[in-house]
Amino acid sequence: MTIELPKPLATYFAAKNRKDIDGMLSAFGEDAQVRDEGEDLHGHAAIRDWMEKTTRKYGVTVEVTGLAGTEAKPIVSALVSGNFPGSPATLHYHFTLDDRSIIRLEIGA
Q1: What is the mean pLDDT of residues 41-60?
Q2: pLDDT value at 76 more than 70
Q3: Which among 32, 40, 62, 87 has the fewest CB atoms less than 10 Å away?
Q4: Handedness of CA 22, 23, 28, 30 (dihedral sign)
Q5: What DSSP assignment string belongs to the chain?
Q6: pTM for the complete prediction?
Q7: How far is 65 from 51, CA to CA, in rounded Å?
Q8: Residues 41-46: contacts with CB under 8 Å, at least 24 apart
């Protein structure tokens, strides 16, 4: 079963699986926010640093398994595999979108 994601999310997850930082970042608005592992990040520079750090540390791949929520606030369930205890694990990506990009992402179990 293929899940059709909104364009910014499809861009983000495809780039994430390629470990393509520029591709991942291209899905985010300039003033976007990310919350992950208890850390809040604001803007492209901070989000890029987070992407580089977590990509090096965990080397994850993501298999999207579900899509819920609304058009503006989709929630993606995914099986995430990588270099971390308990891998693989199901994580939930809570997005907020504007017309063309991700403006907020919160990742949790």
Answers
A1: 97
A2: yes
A3: 40
A4: positive
A5: ------HHHHHHHHHHHHT-HHHHHTTEEEEEEEEETTEEEEHHHHHHHHHHHHHHHH--EEEEEEEEE-SSSEEEEEEEESSSTT-SEEEEEEEEE-SSSEEEEEEE-
A6: 0.95
A7: 22
A8: none
Maximum CA pair distance of the chain? Answer: 36
pLDDT of residue 2: 78
How confident is the model over 101-107, as a mean pLDDT? Answer: 98
Chain mean pLDDT for the chain: 96
Please report where in the chains the tokens 């926010």 appear, as a residue: 33
**Which domains, and CATH codes, for the chain?**
7-108 (3.10.450.50)
Name residue 105's beta-bridge partners.
34, 95
Instruction: State the Cα–Cα distance between residues 29 and 91, nearest whole angstrom.
Output: 23
